[in-house]
Each structure stands twice: as structure tokens, then as C-alpha cells.
Amino acid sequence: MSWGTELWDQYDNLALHTQKGIDFLDKYGNFVRDRCAIELEYASKLRRLVKNYQPKKKEEEDYEYTSWQAFRNVLKEIGDLAGQREIVAETLQAKVIHGISLLSKNLRDDRKKSLTEGAQLTHTLTNQIAALERAKRNYDKSYRDAEKSIENYQKADADLNLSRADVEKHKHNMTMKCQQSDDSKNEYANQLQKSNKLQQTHYETSLPEVFNRLQEIDEKRTKGLKEFIKSAADAESSVAPIIARCLEGIVKASESIDEKEDSLKVIERYKSGFTPPTDIPFEDLSKVDAESSNYSSQNNLGINNMTQKGTMGATKLKKRVGIFGIFGSNKNTLSTDGMKEDFSDLPPNQRRKKLMAKIQEIQQKITQETAAYDGLVKMKGVYEANTMLGDPTTVDAQLNESGSRLEKLKSELKKFKMYLDAANNAQMMQHSPQQHRNMYNGQRSSRHSNGSGENEDGEDNPDDAGSLSSSSASPESGLGTSHTSLPGSGQGSANDNTHPEDMYYEAELLQPLGTCKALYPFDATSEGSIPMAEGEELQVIELDQGDGWTRVRRMCGASGWEEGFVPTSYIESTLYA
After folding, report:
1. CB-side exposure of 488: number of CA atoms within 13 Å?
2. CA distances from residue 232 to 28, 42, 89, 103 in whole angstroms, order as listed
3. CB 383 within 8 A of CB 396
């Protein structure tokens, strides 16, 4: 089926239809263009959204939690999604919009050319039909004139009153009119034959060719629209796998969130290392002197002055010194964030974290500075080998500066490692049940030895710098009660005055007070503690004195007895009557 044979008389409708088709193609092109603008705007807003929610510098510490890390991964995937939307827009712009513009221009040119040719053919046929109408009118007029001249001649020939000359005149006029009528008839016949031939050619050959070309133009437009719609879908589907991977990344980010791990990180981040204070002991005023009473009051005030972070309040930090007094009392300068250089104003755990981070930072700087120094040494060697490249003496100043910076960094590294070692030693001593028991026993003896722990000026004694640090049950138990040491129970004179009966290991074995059975397995990780297996039976040789630890003993074959501390909450004791 072709337009040329089926629609031979629908020239105007075909011209209008092809125009509407091309306009529709342009309409789809505008649709894709607007969609590209939306895609680009969407991608731009996604990128702006990701940028606005990127972690700020002050929030970097919070991104150690799995939930925050998952959100950062989500932001990354959203940024990748924005990139895919931009790719879709670029593909539509290059393959669809540009193709539609080019096709529309070509179709318009071909349609115009075909319609111009069709208009010329129609104009030619119209002119021929007009010529035929003129020839027919001339023939009709000539025929009537010839009939009238014949009628006049017949009347003149029958009229006896007319002269022979008048009759001949009418006869001549009749002959002339008849001749004109025959010529008009022949002209009309010729024009009719010519018009019929032209009309046949016009409707059977010329105009159908024009209509067929219009049909090809319209089909080309339809096929092009089909391909463009498919190309738009292909542009979308080409990025679908990447988008799917982005969505999978978002799902994986959500699955990476671990609430238990975040809870542990909260503990690790905010744990001070101190332990809650024990019960305040009863002070029998009839048996202690005034000095001991003053000591007790100061001890209670010291406990109440603990801040929420587990450190002393500002009034007690005037002369706080480093652990064991190694680094002096007032020589620690403040950093840019208001903390001391050795972070001694922080709780023990937080101090260790800060020190390790500082050491890592210094080590990175040393690595960079060492690389720079080695580069300068190589440059100087090249200059010495070939003076044309440069003067070796110009590098000496830079080498001296680099070496000075390197030595300074190494000195700082050594200093902060000393800080860290001191902090670790203090942490180990706090978590030792033996040290804890020494401190507990030392409190009783120190009340009569070193008093309130202040010097004559009323200031804190530097020797008692560690006296306000807390000692706790073994960290792996998490169940025992805690005990906060009192002033004078640290590294000062209290331990020096400890009596022999307060030591852990006497020369002769202590008599067992009863037996105990291990309810849970315990791995000894601190000084003075011993491991035990679940269900193991041990001898109790010293009861829990309020610090959460019980001293036990077991038989170790030929090697003798093994004694040590275990968490009280891990055992079930049966004492002898």
C-alpha cells in the first residue's frame, strides 16, 4: 500500500500530516531536552546535598562509629548516583537531542522539496486544464458564429430582393466562420488530448512519486522516533548496573552498622579508667585523733570533687603532676586546645589514646622529614658530581634546617613515648589486685604516718600525684566492686610503712578459711591474679576486703602451692565453721 495510489487526491492532507509529524518529532526532542535539564539539575542537587552533609573537621572523631561510617559510605554512593545521572544526561544530549535536530532539519528540507515539486506538477496540470477550457470556449463561440453565418446566408440566398453581391458576401462570411469553427474544433481537440495525457501522467506517475517520497519522509521520521526512544532507554539501562552497585553499596553500608561495636567504641572513647568510690568507712571518733579525722574529711571532699570525666575539679588541678612525678609539676605547657602537653589533665584511658595519636602523628612527620632530608642529600651529591647543575653549598642550609627539624621531632617522639610508658605503668598498677590490696591496707596504716597528704603550705604533695587515681577490679571481670584510694595511699610513705603481715606472700602458708568453686572461667591478665577453670575447687586463704577480689590457693603437684587473687563474683565460697 502506497500513498501515491491510495491517496492520489489527498495532496493537502498529506502535506498537513507530514508537517504535524515533523512537529511531533521536534516536540519529543524538546521533551528529551527538558529531561536532560532535569537530570543535570537533579545530579547537581545531589552533589550539593552530599557536599553539605560531608563530615566537618570537628566531627571526624564521631566517624569512628559504624553508623557514622555507613552514612559516609551512603554519601559516597549518592555522589556516584549523581555521576550516573550526569552520564544519562550527556548520552541523551549527544545521541538523542543532536540526532533529532539533524533528522528534523533533513526531513523538513526533503518535505519542502517534495511539496514544491508537487505544487509545480499541480500548477502545470491546472494551466493545461485552463488552456483546454479556453479552447472549448473558443470552439463553442466559433461554432455558434458559423451556425449563425450559415443561417444568414440561407436567408440571403432565399431573398430575391438582395443583389448577387450581397448574397456572395453572406456566402463568404459563412465560409470564413465555418473555417474558424473547424480551427477552434481542432484546437479544442488538441488541447483535450493534451490535457488528458497530462492528467493521466500527473495522477498515475508524477504526483504518486511525490506522495511516495512524502510517505518515505514520514516513515523515516517514525522510524527515527522509534530509534530515539530506544536510545533514551539504552542510555538509562547502560548505567543501571552501576546504579544497582551503588544501591548494593548502600545496602552493604547499612549492613555494616553494628550497634554492639558502636557501644564498645563509646566505652573506649569516654571510659576514664577511674572506678566508682567505695563505701565511706565509719570513723570512730573515740579511737582516732584529730589528724585522722581531718584526713577523712579531706578524703571525702576529694571524692566529691571528681568531675563527670572522672578527674579532679579545677580547684584540685593547680599542682597536679605527671605520673610518679617524672615530668615535674608546673612545667607542662598547654596545647592549642587548652590541654597539657602530656595530657595529664585527662582520665587515664583518654590520656593514653591522646598520647598514642600524638606519637603516630610525630612518626608520620618524621617519615616525611626523613624523606625530605634524604632527597636533599641526594641533591647535594648530584651537585657535587656535576657543579653545572647547581652549587652544593646552597643545599647545606636546607640540610641543616631539615636535620634540626628531624632532631626536634625525634626528641618529641622520645618525650611522648616516655609519657605513654608512664601512663601504661600507672594503668597496670591500677588494675593490679595486689597493688589494690596494698593500697587498701596502706590506707589503714597511713592514717598514722603521713596524715592528710598536704605540705605546710596547704598545697597538694607532689609525692601523692598518683594518690587520686582509681584502682579497680580486673577489667575482664566487669563484676567486682571498685575501690578508690585515699590520699597518701599511692607511691608515698604509706607503702613504705606497710607491715609484714600486710604483704601477699608470707614465708609460711596461711591456714585456709574455706573452699570455693569457680562459677566461670577466668584468665589472669593482671599482677597478682591467677587463672582458674570453670568448676575448679580452690582454697580460700583471704576474704574479699571490699575490693572485689578474693585470695585463693591451689595445689600444683610437685611444684607446691600457687596463690593469687580471683574475682569474688566468679566463685561460690564455703567457709569453715
Report:
1. 24
2. 11, 17, 10, 16
3. no
Backbone angles phi and psi of 565, in degrees to 5: -105, 145
Closest by Cα among 560, 442, 457, 434 to 491: 442
Q: Residue 372 class from Cβ within 10 Å (0-12 exposed, 13-18 middle, 19+ buried)?
A: middle
SS3 content of the chain, % helix, strand, coil (to 5): 65, 5, 25
What confidence tens digit (pLDDT) does each residue in 210-244 have? 999 999 999 999 999 999 999 999 999 999 999 99
DSSP strands (E only) in 80-235: none
Exposed/middle/buried for residue 556 (C-beta within 10 Å: 0-12, 13-18, 19+)? exposed
Please, is 139 exposed, middle or buried when counting C-beta atoms within 10 Å of its C-beta (0-12, 13-18, 19+)?
buried
Q: What is the C-alpha separation between 27 and 25, in angstroms, rounded?
A: 5
Q: pTM for the full model? A: 0.52
pLDDT of 425-458, one tens digit each?
766 655 556 555 555 555 444 444 444 444 434 4
Alpha helices in 447-554 (DSSP H): 493-496
Phi/psi region, residue 514 (left: phi>0; alpha: psi -120 to 50; beta: rest), is: left
